[in-house]
Fold this protein.
Amino acid sequence: MRIRLALFVALLIWGLAPSPLGHSASDLPSFLQEVRRIVKAGDVGALRALGEKPDTLHWHIWLREHDRLPNWSVDLFPAPKGYGKPGEWWLIFHKFQLVEELCDRVHPVVPAEGGWRLGTEVPEDVAVPFRIEQHDIEIWFEPKARLARLRNTFTVRRVAPDDRALLMRLNAPYKVKSAKLNGEPIPLLVFEGESRPQLPDRGAWMGRAGGLLWLQSDKPLPDSMRVEIEYEGTIWFLPNDRISEKYALLCSYWYPHIGRLPARHRVTMHVPPDWIAIGQGELQSEARNETEYRATWQNDLPVCFFSVVAGPFQVAAETRSKRTGRLIRVYQLRVERNRAEQLARKVAQGMDFFEEHFTPFPYSHYYLVETPDFGFSGLEAYSFTFLDPAISLWACTHELAHTWWGGIVPNTYINSIWNESMTQYSDSVLFQNNADRTLDIGAMTINTGHTVPVGKANVPRDTTMALAGYMRGAYVLRMLEYEIGREKMLEAMRLFIRKRAGQASEWHHFLEAVNEATGEDLSWFFRQWIESAETPRLEVRLLQQQAVGQQWELKVELRQSGTATPYRLRVPLQLRGAEGQSQLEIVVLKQATGQFTFRVPFRVKKIDLLTATGHTLIRPADSSIAVP
């Protein structure tokens, strides 16, 4: 009996035993070809029908524009050790993935009536018993070939006592060429196209399929490891990552990562001799000769996203912040001095403001690199940013604020874009005093017909999620400021930085900081405005107005509806007289209905229900009430 059981287990491990429903792994190549046919045809309906359940393939909602189904590839590979059942095979749908956005999709292949099906997705943030602590990366750029050759040696530490593989992600266009473990070469098995390499029966080996990279062994992996991979990629994914004779930019998962969790890194870049190369952190060394320019940068701040930029950029302007003397520098391909000086001055002002109100900036400098044809976009890199010149003047301090929200306190963007809310609030509301009308747009997001909770917005490229995560998120933070006061708000933000520096964080971590700073439980606020997309409808009804001495007494009733339970609302009412007099009243409604009495020095002729002041988010039955 033991011999037969051992044989059956061995067959399962090699994928040869029949499934409980009678399917054999020998059927899997046919299933793979069918999936590839569906993907090539762009048949989203047929793809969804392959799911084990109707909602198994939920990511079909993103299959548009660059994410259209025919742009994906599909490969089959054995489940990495410890993450699937014995003998289980996984399918990976892969393509170039944009930074802070989506990921390759991985599904186990499961037996079902009528054939194989795709099981529940293996999430990008699946629990892995290791953490990458430090990367040491060397990059050789070949602009004419649009090629980057890379060698990455990274240190890994065990954080959980189980025998799972070290499971990582690396953007699919990067082709891994070799692997080493603690300095010794190990087999590299690539599951791509029709390749089905035989699994080693002993020792450690590395697997690669689409955007997945994993390391496993017949014995438990060491508690600490030094892993080295050599890889390369032809990079031309406009308007984002690119290598060309004009300039080079890498920002989208060009290094192995575990669920986008933060790590420190050091990067050395080799570029043409007339170029410069900028990485995150502090410049360690540089050298230039007739054949190349070489620069090494070290970032000791653990961050989720690494970026580098290189090209024939020139210093167009520089200045220093007043408070701490940080060097502010603007780089351009073609110098436009006046605009560059404007940029430098604005960044320096932002630096002074954020350091005064938050915590010290963690680097000696901040660079702004203008990268043309970047799709009216930009990206924070914490010690620098790169921006399309079309938006650099209004976006430069937004990207600077990300050094605190996303840099010092990291965010993976897998669950939410809380740091975009915090950044938009810090820059547009606090620093620029709503000059870009963030509050107005935030208030309008409840009228778009479809929205998501602020805490569930996690894809910046999606308009609905961006409006919720950036604009309504910033608006809600202004509401929180009115609820607890400016000083307590800033104290909570500073406390959030101190408590969560270097750790991937979410909205609930900020709630903990708010509660500690205020000594109160603000869970109700986060439930209403962060976790829910409901917005109450509010009606104002006049009850009575009468003269009381030389003043007028006004009684009104506020009634809310449209939410599962009554919200706690901070409602601004503007009381107006016939001759232009006005008085602002802020009332707090805690129940479905409440009555309020006001004393004013004039007869009230109109009550305006203000909806974009940052005090609350409501749908008014009537925004203006005439008083007879």
User: Anything to note?
Assistant: Residues 1-22 have pLDDT under 50 and may be disordered. DSSP finds eleven helices and 35 strands in the chain. The two ends are 93 Å apart (CA to CA).
